[in-house]
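The protein record reproduced below.
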Amino acid sequence: MKILLPRISLVAAFLCLLFTTRAQNPKIKCYFNHPVNNNLATGTNAIYLNGTFPDTIVAYINNAKYSLDIAVYNFTSRGNDSVAKIATAVNDAFARGVTVRWVYNGTSATANSGMKLLNAAIPRIGSPSGNGYNIMHNKFVVVDANSPDTNDAIVITGSYNFSQQQTFGDYNNLLIVQDQNVALAYQNQFNKMWGGAGAAPDSSKSTFGTFKTPSSKNYFNVGGTQVQVRFSPSDTAGYYLRTMAYTANNDLTFGIYTFTDNSLANAILSKFNSGISVRGIMDGSSKSYNPYTTLSTPLGANMAVFNNNNLLYHNKILVVDALLPSSDPQVATGSFNWTSSAQYTNDENLLIIHDAAIANQYYQSICDNITVNGGNACIAPLPVEWVSFDASLNSNGTATLQWVTANEVNNDHFEIERSTDGIVFENDGNVANGKTGDYQFIDKKVEAGANYFRIKQVDDDGYFTYSKVLSVYNRTGATISLYPNPALDKLNILLPLGAVSVSVYDAYGTKVIQQPVKGKPATQINVNALSKGSYYIEILGKGSKFIKPFIKQ
């Protein structure tokens, strides 16, 4: 279903960010090595590169002027195949004076036979093995990170290892980001494994796995697109992937190789149970893990399984709201499998990209993967255009929802859904299709505290999609609410009427944070610096005191 929301406003206690449909960001490109379904495009067609991933990488390597930093889990080549040209391009770059550095997985999990094709003078270092280490599972290339021309800096990443099977058989994606700050973040991660910024590795200073320190910066603006970069295990990538799943307002789609994280499976299941469209595909090797058991029966044919003893469904992709540009469409990709090893021991990278065009291109790819492997077809964009959607609390405790649509085709009716937790929604009433496209609904079931609203638009044939979720806060008779709990870095607090100050106390009763909140309906506290453990919030008002516990992860 195609829903375009050029603007969304929220007349309530909270501010709502504005998202608009826009063209492809020229600084971010994605490619796929299996066919895609361009019938699902909402703007830019996804691009299928049939066996030419190596050529794409070589083109960027050939443009390198100053430096090449390569961290790839596995490079397998016989020397007379299509991926051998990557070694040739790297050798040529080295010969013309480009500083080349290469990090590879040093455990017995990979042979890395293609490394033999490299000029012996090219510096390299393998990840260590033994206690405390697992695998170096990254797949990225950084080109000219420190170039005086910021347009030279490139990051190539995704799920692709350098091999014939990964090129022609296994399912993979390739992501290109042209941004110097992102390139420097990847180079900084590389330098941790390398042991410094020099041309030669320093094994006495190199750090892998759990020995690495957290990244200093995780959020970047790439040509107007927010890009989040997380490296495992130091940047708690799994937490942010689960958080992303919970933001889905309309649709959630996934394609994953190894899936053992049942907390993420439960997040996906909760969105499915709330009425959101969920489609997915996983590799057959994951059928023995809990997430398959959690999702297979509820999703049924909405989740396909790639069963092939010789090939892999090797993507690691999560997409939310690819069909709802007015929400916050996102795609997560990289080397990060959804496993405890990826979260806590491996060297991995994960990107979360907030971009409607990119999210929809990944949607085109995954959906084709699903259907050719026996799964149900994904929902296609449908012709309903939303102009605005507002929610406001009235003085009598009711809420007014107003929305405007245009270009309605085959629209049957709207269903108003409300929730007190933003997860489980119930129907509060229906509104029939109108001729003017201007709608209003008065909800008389508003409860004390937070109330979340969304509009379910239903077509004549039964297909439906959801608007963005808006919230109003009824402070009359409300008690405090904390989320997320447990909290990792930010704790949001919905305040009762008359609140004056908020304090955080540790388990020993020591006040560790205090801030004024007079006149505010809500506040946010930065708890990132707190140690892991149990804490409690104390909210003081005129003649009142509220106490509520929370956990710092």
